[in-house]
Amino acid sequence: MNADLHCHSTASDGLLKPDELAERARNRGIDLLALTDHDGVSALAAMRVAAESRGIGFVDGVEISACWGAIGIHVLGLGIDPQHAGLVAGLQGIRDSRAGRARAMGESLAKAGIDGALEGAMAYAGNPSLLSRTHFARFLVQAGHANDVKNVFQRYLVEGKPGYVEHQWARLEDAVNWIRDSGGQAVVAHPGRYGLTEAEMREFLGTFKDLGGAGIEVVSGAHTPDQNGDFAVWARQFGFLGSRGSDFHGPGESKVDLGKVMALPAGIEPVWNVLMEKAADRVPHPPHSATVLA
Ligand code: AMP
Ligand code: MN
Ligand code: MN
Ligand code: MN
């Protein structure tokens, strides 16, 4: 089973549209795909059609920007209901807050001598209501301030650098509740990316579990192979479901392609087992007459 449960489209900071993502997923032999745009669900309906028409199983997803104390954490919602009112309102609140942050980033970069960054970033945003650091990064590269997106983050867009602005994201408990209330599984995205010490990780995972978190992304395109192994151990310790995702954003930009991450290590229940059971429950059984006619 080649499941890739983490990627982005032009509805957030990805470079491909649903049809292009689905075509790529088919060419990479993906059986089950989740689209997990940052803080929004606007591309899910089109993505489902694009995936299913190519025989690829599809899971409605989202990647919610949240805070655990002062630490930014991304929480994947897998198998959500994209129309659930509480989830929709929560995501809208986060997107609204991104607009003010983007203005502040533009002002901060102007002080550092870079003009027109907000307008420049907007030109790269497929969805004007979702401006991310990635869009600023693409503008800064094009304007010649760094030679690639990775470099530009290190120089301009991480804590302590001119284009970095502190931001209050959703509370971790709210993110988990929106996901659960809409019928989804809350999964910590790329847990190796937060720079937590072992003690902090233990505390964080305990809190996430207590809040109703279901799993962690054991295998991630944002992890080293060693980290994938480490998080397999954490998942077993905490009894978390395990997820697997490339975090693909686009060709040329992401070093890991769709589906090209290692298999989920043994001894961990894959989150897709639960997702597929739920999906099967939701599909109405064919009427009896259809069976007779067939
Ligand atoms: P934001 O949610 O606006 O803070 O932007 C976060 C996004 O920036 C992530 O989802 C990644 O796509 C991208 N990103 C964060 N850190 C880096 C990095 N060091 N190199 C490349 N992309 C990054
Ligand atoms: Mn991103
Ligand atoms: Mn993320
Ligand atoms: Mn992501």
Describe what you observe in this structure:
- The chain has 294 residues and is α/β, with parallel strands linked by helices.
- The protein has 2 domains: 3-83 and 171-282, TIM Barrel, CATH 3.20.20.140; 92-155, DNA polymerase, domain 1 (Orthogonal Bundle).
- 44% of the residues lie in helices and 15% in strands.
- Strands 1, 2, 3, 4, 5, 6, 7 and 8 form an 8-stranded mixed sheet that branches.
- A hairpin with a 2-residue loop joins strand 3 and strand 4 (71-78).
- The protein is globular, with a radius of gyration of 19 Å.
- The protein binds adenosine monophosphate and manganese (II) ion (3 copies).
- One manganese (II) ion binds next to loops.
Descriptors:
294 residues; alpha/beta; DNA polymerase, domain 1; 11 helices; binds adenosine monophosphate; 8-stranded mixed sheet; binds manganese (II) ion; TIM Barrel
Q: What is the overall number of helices? A: 11
Share of helical residues: 40-55%
Shape: globular
**Gyration radius, rounded:** 19 Å
Could you say how many structural domains there are in total? 2
The bound ligands are: adenosine monophosphate, manganese (II) ion
- The CATH homology group name of the largest domain: Metal-dependent hydrolases
N/C terminus separation: 30 Å
Give the name of the CATH architecture of the largest domain.
Alpha-Beta Barrel
Name of the top-level CATH class of the largest domain:
Alpha Beta
